Amino acid sequence: LAGLVAVLLGIVAALAVQFGNRADDRIVIGAKGFSEQYILARLIGQQLETAGYTVDYRNGLGSAVAHQAVANGAIDVLVDYTGTIWTNQMERRDTPDRDTMLAEIEEWETRTTGTHVLGRLGFEKAYGLAMPRARAEAGGFAAIGDLAARGQGMTIGGDPEFFERPEWIAVREAYGLRFAARRNFSPTFMYNALTSGEADVIGAYTSDGRIAADDLVILDDPEGAFPNYDAIILLAPQTGTDDALVAALEPLIGAIGVEAMREANYSVDRTEDKLSFERAAQRLAERIGQ
User: Fold this and answer.
1) Distance CA 74, CA 64 (A)
2) d(CA 205, CA 129)
């Protein structure tokens, strides 16, 4: 019991350090620990600064911590993903269409946390199966079912988590996928594996910058086996009552297509001429007319 109390006190102390220094007059924007989140947090911050708000950032948050932080008001704004909330917070395993999923998430957040779902940004960061466009067109691979018909001699690659995730298991069983080999790669080398021929198809995130840079195609998923991971803006319960703040962020709803997000992600992740997160956010804002 004493050990458990010590652990809990340590967690509380860590959270106090992470969230305890916010100034009451600042809007605090949270970001999980990857490039897309840092870009979007600064895009939101720039929108709010233009509207007269002072902003601060909490970067590198874990998914569960980030959701809890926006629910209890430790942060004011967070970009999250529908599939993450659906599976991690709501513990759901079914895969409804995106409109049904969003409506149920909105109802659940209102009922359980009071968090306000402002809306979709316009793209999703979902898992998908990616191939080089030239190889896909030459082989007639347009949808995942084509892999089931003609992919038995191919090698599929994925990041270290991909083949253990429920998304992969669901898509494998939905389409009856069978490959000659399966290989794990780090996220960076996974894309290089397509270029070198070490893999023929990979499990990729649909908003990754390398999708466009390497001219890859995401195969269609007509069975809807991969769940929806639409990017959405969440507002803390009290923050969601600020009409001026809501009005400042509403122009972002539905404004960011996946191609624009891929370009922004690649601009900070490429090996040469990288942009800062702030500059990438500015360029993204220019592209979407903000």
Assistant:
1) 13
2) 8
Q: Which amino acid is at 17?
A: V
Residues 125, 36 contacting (CB under 8 angstroms):
yes
- What is the spatial distance between Cα 203 and Cα 120, in angstroms, rounded to a whole number? 24
CB 204 within 8 A of CB 150: no
165-196: pLDDT as tens digits: 777 888 999 999 999 999 999 877 888 899 89
Half-sphere exposure of 75 (CA within 13 A, CB side): 28
Rounded to an integer, what distance in angstroms lies between the CA atom of residue 28 and that of residue 52?
14
Predicted TM-score (pTM) of this structure: 0.81
Which one-letter amino acid corresponds to residue 59?
A: N
**Rounded Cα distance, 162 and 171, in Å:** 12
Alpha helices (runs of H) in the chain, residue ranges in sequence order: 2-19, 35-50, 63-72, 82-84, 98-112, 133-139, 144-150, 166-175, 187-196, 209-213, 243-249, 258-269, 277-287
